[in-house]
């Protein structure tokens, strides 16, 4: 229960691997060594005091409610400021008298009570009944809170926006039993970012059951091999997109029961789909009645006190990552989602906020290394992320962790063992920003091809990144999806095959396909798509809120438009599926970064090779090129394996897919051979050696 790190001597970091990876880090080795030392001290403390990660991260098996075979229940809660504590609920008619279910305090501020069974094997607290912890605290008197480790909370908006805690202990025959093993660790990560609540076309909140039955088959058919589930951790306000968490161990009851979420994940595993949780440890809801804020009546139990513990822009509380019990809570939270629900890994939200004292507010990152190792770095936040990644990869070697970081922190995706922060991937957040800026401000005939390629390829060497053209951020009201930027109001009038193919729709379909293929094949070692964007979802995303009369009009996915064979959305959907299945065959995401042999500003042509494939993009708005010469390293006969101009993808069918392209052994654009190809305007082609098809 110590709140400080151990003084046990720790091994010194060997910085040679870091210097080999990036010699420019030499002036900052002291900062890297300092954070490593702090990490090593914490790990030594966890080993010596708690028995290592294995025991320390199982806090959920000690705290909260534990039900035993004989029917007895033990409840524990850390609340050091409390003077008295009682467990109250439906089971004891909310009796707050001093003797009824009074809890005992240990020297570390942990309160506990064991409730004998009602009958042999029958718990005294009924399944799904309501309860709270009632405490007497200095200066405030009696306060009542939802247990911090509670696994189920529900909300009845007709009564109050505040959540109520539920004792979740279904009978054995109602507990979900997992049937499928986790998929093997992916090297080619194709992520479908999804939100269960918006996954219905109806004007309401979607359910886990519906997602399992209706959405998972779509994802599988498209060829995505991972889903990233948003807004699962219970959050106070639906419109927050899940980023104001109040109950960290509770799966959101808006969509159904915990057993139904388990069924969703297990079904995904049966389809070979990896399931990632969008985990929010960067901040917490400031709610008092149904959150962690002021849990034991103090400002500083789980969070920093005063201004340091508050995020100005997010209006939320900030964890004290330097506190022993906070580390127990958060590391156990990760372990809980892995064990209880069988998630395969995490996308960590708000990593930039966690790593810097300024939280990224009003700060631009130039890429200068001094920004990453100076006084502005929150060492405790960085070290927590190191501990989290180290623990996850030690206990679950196949786990996947992704960082949402806009700063470009060096060594973020390098193993903790050699001085990194330990993530497997970072999100390439500059890529979608680039596309939105281009579509807002510049006609495509004036696009800077060199800058586009630079943005797609500008990533830290040996650190993997997830590329995406647009995520949920670009779909939200106040912005527009790429499809909407490209086609705008004509999406309402000219997306039927029975209507005229206007210049705007033709351009929109063509560029939507080209942008996604370019990002997928050149931008990273993983790829992400937000649900619906694969077929150019016609409208933005806006959750029910006071400003829109609590409407669900834009908080749903209109699957009907892609399912209608008369509408052109199907062409974008078909092309997206073709990209995923082609990557599944050739594995370019796990290959070395693409070698770009041509960036021609006048012709608006990009040519590169990756994983043995030859990618050719002609972004010119009017010019098509006959016998266009492109370089290629490996000689042989090449065939087209994907053309964005194909009729099934809404193209004009100007490319003969049966053509064989034979290389000539003359150097071109620093490649040993060349071939000549017809490349129409606004078309992307992918060629492969005929022997590999």
From TrEMBL:
Enzyme Commission number(s): 2.4.1.18
Domain of life: Eukaryota
Domain annotation Glycosyl hydrolase family 13 catalytic: ranges: 206-576
Protein name: 1,4-alpha-glucan-branching enzyme
One term of GO molecular function: 1,4-alpha-glucan branching enzyme activity
PANTHER family to which the protein is assigned, alphabetical: 1,4-ALPHA-GLUCAN-BRANCHING ENZYME (PTHR43651:SF3)
Record-linked InterPro entries: A-amylase/branching_C, Branching_enzy, GH, GH13_cat_dom, Glyco_hydro_13_N, Glyco_hydro_b, Ig-like_fold, Ig_E-set
UniProt cross-references to Pfam families, sorted A to Z: Alpha-amylase (PF00128), Alpha-amylase_C (PF02806), CBM_48 (PF02922)
Pathway: Glycan biosynthesis; glycogen biosynthesis
Transferase among keywords: yes
Record function comment: Glycogen-branching enzyme participates in the glycogen biosynthetic process along with glycogenin and glycogen synthase. Generates alpha-1,6-glucosidic branches from alpha-1,4-linked glucose chains, to increase solubility of the glycogen polymer.
Catalytic activity from the UniProt record: Transfers a segment of a (1->4)-alpha-D-glucan chain to a primary hydroxy group in a similar glucan chain
């Amino acid at each position: 229960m110590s709140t400080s790190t151990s003084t046990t001597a720790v091994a010194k970091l060997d910085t040679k691997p870091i210097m080999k990876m990036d010699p420019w880090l030499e002036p900052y080795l002291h900062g890297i060594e300092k954070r490593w030392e702090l990490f090593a001290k914490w790990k030594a403390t966890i080993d010596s005091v708690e028995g290592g990660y294995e025991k320390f991260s199982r806090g959920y098996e000690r705290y909260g409610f534990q039900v035993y075979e004989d029917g007895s229940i033990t409840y524990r809660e850390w609340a050091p400021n409390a003077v008295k504590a009682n467990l109250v609920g439906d089971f004891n008619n909310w009796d707050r008298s001093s003797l009824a279910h009074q809890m005992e305090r240990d020297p570390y501020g942990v309160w506990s009570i064991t409730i004998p069974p009602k009958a042999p094997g029958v718990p005294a607290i009924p399944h799904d009944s309501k309860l709270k912890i009632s405490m007497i605290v200095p200066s405030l008197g009696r306060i009542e809170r939802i247990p911090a480790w509670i696994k189920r909370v529900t909300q009845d908006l007709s009564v109050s926006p505040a959540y109520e805690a539920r004792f979740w202990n279904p009978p054995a025959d109602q507990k979900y039993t997992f049937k499928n093993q986790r998929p093997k660790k992916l090297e080619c990560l194709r992520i479908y970012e999804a939100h269960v609540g918006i996954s219905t076309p109806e004007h309401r909140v979607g359910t886990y059951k519906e997602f399992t039955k209706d959405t998972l088959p779509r994802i599988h058919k498209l060829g995505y091999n991972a889903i990233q589930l948003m807004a699962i951790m219970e959050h106070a306000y639906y419109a927050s997109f899940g980023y104001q968490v109040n109950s960290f161990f509770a799966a959101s009851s808006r969509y159904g029961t915990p057993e139904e979420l388990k069924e969703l994940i297990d079904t995904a595993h049966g389809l070979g789909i990896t399931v990632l949780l969008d985990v929010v440890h960067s901040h917490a809801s400031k709610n008092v009645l149904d959150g962690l804020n002021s849990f034991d009546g103090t400002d500083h139990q789980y969070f920093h006190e005063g201004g340091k513990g508050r995020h100005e822009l997010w209006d939320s509380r900030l964890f004290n990552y330097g506190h022993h019990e906070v580390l127990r809570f958060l590391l156990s939270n990760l372990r809980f989602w892995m064990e209880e629900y069988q998630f395969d890994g995490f996308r960590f939200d708000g990593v930039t906020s966690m790593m810097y004292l300024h939280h990224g507010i009003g700060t631009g990152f130039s890429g200068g290394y001094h920004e990453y190792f100076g006084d502005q770095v929150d060492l405790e936040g960085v070290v927590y992320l190191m501990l989290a990644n180290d623990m996850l990869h030690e206990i679950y070697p196949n786990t996947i962790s992704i960082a949402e970081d806009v700063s470009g922190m060096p060594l973020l995706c390098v193993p903790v063992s050699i001085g990194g922060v330990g993530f497997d991937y970072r999100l390439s957040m500059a890529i979608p920003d680039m596309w939105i800026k281009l579509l807002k401000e510049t006609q495509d005939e004036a696009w800077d091809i060199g800058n586009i390629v630079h943005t797609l390829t500008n990533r830290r060497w040996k650190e993997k990144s997830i590329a995406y053209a647009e995520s949920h951020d670009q779909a939200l009201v106040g912005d527009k999806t790429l499809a909407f930027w490209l086609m705008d109001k004509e999406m309402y009038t000219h997306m039927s095959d029975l209507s005229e193919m206007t210049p705007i729709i033709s351009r929109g379909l063509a560029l939507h396909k080209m942008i996604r293929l370019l990002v997928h094949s050149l931008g990273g070692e993983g790829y992400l798509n937000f649900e619906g964007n694969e077929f150019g979802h016609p409208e933005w995303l806006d959750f029910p809120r006071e400003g829109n009369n609590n409407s669900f009009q834009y908080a749903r996915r209109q699957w009907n438009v892609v399912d209608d064979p008369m509408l052109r959305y199907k062409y974008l959907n078909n092309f997206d599926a073709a990209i995923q299945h082609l990557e599944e065959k050739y594995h370019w995401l796990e290959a070395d970064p693409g070698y770009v042999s041509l960036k021609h500003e006048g012709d608006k042509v990009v040519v590169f090779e990756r994983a043995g494939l030859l990618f050719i993009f002609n972004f010119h708005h009017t010019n098509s090129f006959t016998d266009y010469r492109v370089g290629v390293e490996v000689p042989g006969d090449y065939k087209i394996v994907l053309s964005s101009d194909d009729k099934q993808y809404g193209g004009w069918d100007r490319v003969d897919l049966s053509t064989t392209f034979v290389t000539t052994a003359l150097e071109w654009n620093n490649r040993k051979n060349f071939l000549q190809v017809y490349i129409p305007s606004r078309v992307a082609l992918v060629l492969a050696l005929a022997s590999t098809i």
